Every structure is written in structure tokens, then in C-alpha cells.
Amino acid sequence: MDLVGACCAFVHVSERGSFTVGAAAAHMSQSVASRRVAALERHLGEPLFERSARRARLTPFGRELLPAARRLVLAAEELEHEAATARRRPVRLAVPDTCPAPDLARLAAAARHHGITLELRTAAPAVRPHLVRSQQVRAALVAVPPDQARWCVSLGLAGLERPPGRRLYLETLRPRRTDQGPPRRVWLQPEDDVPHIRDRMTRLRDTVGLRPAQLSVATSLTEAAAEVFSSSDLLLCSPLQAREFALHWRPLGELALERTFGLLAAEEGDAERLGTRLGDALAHCLGAGEEAAAGAGGRQEQESGEPLEEKKESA
């Protein structure tokens, strides 16, 4: 038996003294109200009303139970109100500041289809875990080691000049005596200033004989891109970012590099809920998956006439 629905019919009929009027006030038909009250009477073992053609009058038993029935109906209404409020309460999510605004808007729209209101906050990689620990956000997309990753984003080198081959080898940047001007540099953006990317690039730089200054970490993606636009320098970035900046992107020849992300949340259930319901939309924001890589790669193939290799080479 629907105890709350039966008590709702009981309360409204008792307040109006009529099954017809009471049922209308409870937004149900008269027949439904009659069935619910009758079921409640059977459940409680005593009649609640003295019925006549004109009125429904409470029995002494009904008068005794009416206050408790009102409390139950009010408690149910309060529960529904709190549930609706909780559904509307924003879920604050920290995301990389490299995520394009249109993709973040699509992420927020996708969340609404799942009954989630997202409040997005962009932040640097070192800041996002702190925002979760200080409870400024409920969850964050954070950089994690490759073996803990939920989303992976391929990285390569991009510049203004179209590379001749399918891959771009860092050793080709080794300074020569005949070179004029400063040696070409590779710029890392803050999102890639994490050990499993920065340290591997540093070891590769030293292995192939580049100067220390040829690998630099910029204070922002904007600064890194500005350096590339004003020189022959290269940007370590994803295919999606290369497409946004209209740069020519190639995979790194000596090393397979990826940004690797996971979800950190104050409550484990939040991470699982967001990852399950919004996994595809989050991947799109990060530039992860074949779709983002194929989109950028297809453009470069058309420009250069050479297909990009999708297969990675290990160091």
C-alpha cells in the first residue's frame, strides 16, 4: 500500500468533508481517493470516516489519527523539496584551463541531461587537487601517473612550419656550428609540468644532446604559444590544441607521451558518478580519444599529403 498517498487522500478529504472536493485538492480522482482511504482503513483495522451521500465525517478513530497523518504528509513533502533542492545544487568541478570554452559548455549541457548542474572552475594542475582537499570544489580532473589514468591525451610537437616527415624527432633540434641565431626550443605548458612528462622530456633532451635552455616551461599556454608564433620554436601539445592554434602537429619520434587524467573527489561516489555519466564529455574536453586525434590528424594529412601514424613508438 502507498501509505503516503493514502494519508494524503485521508488528510484532504477530512479537511473538506467531501471525497469529491478532497480528491480534487489532492490532485487525484474521486475514485482513487476512495480506494486509497479504503485501503488505509483496512490497513489500520478501523473506519476513518462515517460516509453519507453529502459528507464524509471523521470517526473518533479518524480524529485520533489525523494529526499523525498530517505529519507524515508534511514530512513527505519536505523530503521531495529537499531532493529537488539537492538536485539543483551545483557540483563544483575543477578542470584544466586548457579545456576549450565550447567543449566546457557542452560538458555542462550534457550534465544537465543527467540531472547534474555543473559549476566549472578552471585551474592549473598543481592547484586542482588542493581545491578538492580544501573543499572548494567537490571533484577535479587531475594529472595522474599513466597506470592510474582514466583518460589519455596524446602529445606531440607543433609549430608554424610544416614538418617533412610523419614524426618530429627531438634530435633534429640539436644545435650545429653553422646555425644562425638561437637554437630552437621546445615549450612545455603548465599542464605538462608534471613528473611523468617533464622528467621524461628532460632525460630525452639530455640523451639527444640538446642544451638545457632548449626545453622550457612557460607560465601559461598563451605565453608558450606566443613564443612559437614569433619563432621557429615548438610547442608540446595535444592534436586538439594544435588545431585550435592552427599549428602543424606531429607525434614525437623518440618518445610516446600522453597526458593522463583521473577524477579526484572528496566523496568516492562523486568521482564514480561523474566519470560514469559524463565520461565521454570529459574526454572530449580534454582532447582524449580517437575522435580528437583523428580530427587534428585529418587536417594535417590534408595539408602535408602524408598520413599521421596512429601507432605509438616507445622510447
TrEMBL record:
Entry keyword annotation includes Transcription: yes
Domain HTH lysR-type: from-to ranges: 9-59
Keywords of the record: DNA-binding, Transcription, Transcription regulation
PROSITE patterns associated with the record: HTH_LYSR (PS50931)
One Pfam family hit: HTH_1
InterPro entries hit by this protein: LysR_HTH_N, WH-like_DNA-bd_sf, WH_DNA-bd_sf
Source taxon at top rank: Bacteria
Region (Disordered): 291-315
Annotated family: Belongs to the LysR transcriptional regulatory family.
Name used for this protein in its record: LysR family transcriptional regulator
Naturally occurring in which organism (per UniProt): Streptomyces oryzae
